[in-house]
Amino acid sequence: MKGMKNFFREYTVFIVCALLMVVPSITSQYVFYVFERGVQNAFLVIGLVILIGYSGMMTLGSAAHLAIGGYAYGIYCLLGLPPVLSAAIAVATATLLGTLLAFPAFKLSGPFLVVTTVGFGEITRILILNLQSLTGGAYGLSGYPVVSQAMQKYLYYGMVALLLLVILAVRRLGRSRIGLALKAVRQDQVAAEVMGVHIKRAKVAAYALSSLLAGLSGVFLANLTGYLSPDSFTGSESATYLLMTVMGGMSNPTGAAVSSVGITALPEVLRFLYSSRLMVYSLALLIYIRVKWGRKRRVALVKPSAQGAPKPKGGES
Amino acid sequence: MKKLRSILCVLLAVLLMVGACAVAEAKPASYKIVHLAPLTGDASFQGQILVNAAQMAVDEINAAGGINGVPIEYVPIDETSSTNSGIEAVRKAISENPDAIIGPNRSGTILAAHQLWQEAGIPAITDGTNAATTKQNNPYTFRIQIPSTFWIPILAKTAKEYYNASKIAVIYGNNEYSQGLWDATTPALEEYGLETVAVLNYNDGDRDFTSQLLEVRKSGADALFLYGYEAELGLIVRQRTELGMGDLPVFGERGCASPAVQAIAGDENFNGMVCSTTLSQGDPAESIQAFIKKYGETFDTALSPTHVNHYDSIKILADVIGRVGNDHDAIRDALAVLDFEGALGHYQADSEGNLVHTIHTQVFKDGAWQLLLTEEYPVE
Fold it and tell me: Is this structure's pTM higher than 0.90?
């Protein structure tokens, strides 16, 4: 019984990805697009799993990282670089700019760090809005090459395959030295430092990895929509990504992927309710958060649970 | 020989019957029209008016027996007020396989998603006023509004001829809609020899505009051109009187004639508001007054003059489908040469797919709108 449970825990990710793989063959174009958006969001949210779930560094500015990735791709393309190269440099740009955020995070934690990330998100959005010659400002950015409609299916297969690799990698990362270091930082920064964890290095790594995934997600977003505008990267979008992370189980990459697809699809599923759908949407999320899901361990975000509390076996992934 | 002839007769009769059945089957159970409108988010207020107006026309047509006996199936779809979910909504609309699309309302959504309905070959009667939306070489995009380039010259003309203004201050919001209007402002003011003395902008969601308004006062402007969404417009208009600038006439584009702005600003602060619209509540024309009255009775709310044109969009589509059937390309071709007298105005298609060519300015005075100027731009 226990063996089966472990087996399930270990291999859910393959089942999820296999299910995602068959989506294009069995759904309409519209439903397929919603799934594409969900998988694209999953990359960003798995990045947040590293940042928030593993390291406990709360962020409400994740939409900005996404925007940097997307806009960088569009701008490099429009400057004449080939799309694949643009994508690579865009991810690098997003990683670099995102990693810079690690520096304030050396000193800040808790609510102070959250405020910093909110500020970062707003500054990025307002810069995009006002740097009109570069980003198109409020008109938005369009006209860059995107993956054609016929090739979308293959882009999607590529995304799901990459998602599988990312989930496996992030899961391994959680059990690796750096992952354990990050988790130690989350639990107690001082204790971790005393034990010889290089705090700064760990934080830089967390920010670099999460903004790399966010940049990747941004490049995919640019390709899916063919149009970027600042109204897609507001604070409320960041809050939605945080929600996806929390509902996915904080430090569970597979859960994050599932909740990304689920929450992206939810407003579309609820479309038949017309304008009351936002209410039902919020209600559904509230109920989900309040229900106790089995004996799943809750991850303490700020403080560790009382000392000596028994830990469920099997370990968190 | 006789036998052969009778066989032929029977065959012919059968063929005719089959043919008749095929014709009868070609008539669908309903003609489907989907309407993309922002029913949630920042623009939800106008979204509801857009849908109300269209619904009114659908109800009228269906009550009168539909189009050649076939009822219209009208499906409103929430475009939301953000571009990303707008694209999803357009995909949803196309997946419904409608005979025609009405909307989207937001220029951003149109620019982002117009290729989707072009690929699907479904004609769309949009209403975003950004001039660029009909310049995308998309033969399936039509617009039941006048492009933003026309909204400002008539305001400049009114400012000059009715208010003797010479120094103009401009405040606009940082969004694609207001930016489009600002881009059209400088040439319009130059055309009428008006001087721009201050240009200020704000970000959507701002709630205090004291600094911008004080700048306007310092500049000595004798008219204020104001572009933005309802919530901010209303506050700016109210804060203008609170700062003792109540005499400064405010000029705005269609959005400012919305009852939402009036409600936020307060009636007493709203006096002196000049708006350019494609339909004026002050227009004495009988069909327009009848429409305004009927709208008020049906929905028990005031209408916003430039968000009700989809009443005529439905009538146009009903007319076109009644004439050419529900083949997408036939509808498109008929819209491209449209010349239609609607309840709210005259509609004629130009080479870009713009259907509206008349524009008015009106002023809010003593609790009611009064018509000032009317301009016609002939179809080229």
Answer: no
The tally of CA atoms less than 13 A away on the side-chain side of residue A84 is 1
d(CA B261, CA B237): 9
- Structure ipTM: 0.76
DSSP letters of B89-132?
A: HHHHHHHT--SEEE---SHHHHHHHHHHHHHHT--EEE----GG
| Domain ranges for chain B | 32-146+285-358, 150-277
Question: Does residue B116 contact residue A226 with C-beta atoms inside 8 Å?
Answer: no
One-character DSSP codes across B282-294? T---HHHHHHHHH
Of B286, B231, B283, B298, give the one whose Cα is nearest residue B262.
B231
Mean pLDDT of B107-124: 91
pLDDT at A1: 58
Contact list in A for residue B128 (CB cut-off 8 A) is none
Q: How many CB pairs under 8 A join A and B?
A: 85
Report whether A241 contacts A62 (CB < 8 A). yes
CB of B250 within 8 A of CB of B235? no
State phi, psi for B201 to the nearest 5 degrees.
-135, 170
With CA atoms as reference, report the closest residue to B92 among A129, A151, A269. Answer: A269
How confident is the model over A210-235, as pLDDT tens digits?
Answer: 999 999 999 999 999 888 988 889 88
Q: Does position A316 have pLDDT exceeding 50, yes or no?
A: no
* pLDDT on residue B7: 63
Contact A138 B178 (CB under 8 A): yes
**What stretches of A82-207 adopt beta strand conformation (E)?**
141-142
Rounded CA separation B357/B350 (Å)? 9
**Which numeric CATH code is attached to A29-290?**
1.10.3470
β-bridge partners, B31: B72
- A162 or A138: which carries more pLDDT confidence? A162
Superfamily of domain B150-277: Response regulator (3.40.50.2300)
CATH of B32-146+285-358, one of 2.40.30.160, 2.60.120.10, 3.40.50.2300, 3.40.50.1820: 3.40.50.2300
For B90, which residue in chain A has the nearest alpha carbon? A30
For chain A, domain boundaries = 29-290
Task: For chain A, give percent helix, strand, coil, nearest 5.
Answer: 75, 0, 20
Identify the CA nearest to A232 among candidates B98, B80, B220: B80
Please judge whether A130 and B92 are an interchain contact, meaning their C-beta atoms are less than 8 angstroms apart: no
What tokens were used for A286? 């509230």
What does each C-alpha distance from B140 to B2, B101, B125, B369 come to in angstroms? Answer: 56, 10, 8, 36
Per-residue pLDDT tens digits for B119-136:
999 999 998 888 888 988
Please tell me whether residue B199 adopts helix, strand or coil conformation.
strand
Choose the closest CB to B82 out of A37, A142, A231. Answer: A231
State both tokens at B198.
């201050």
Which of A268, A32, A68, A53 lies closest to A157, judged by CA?
A32
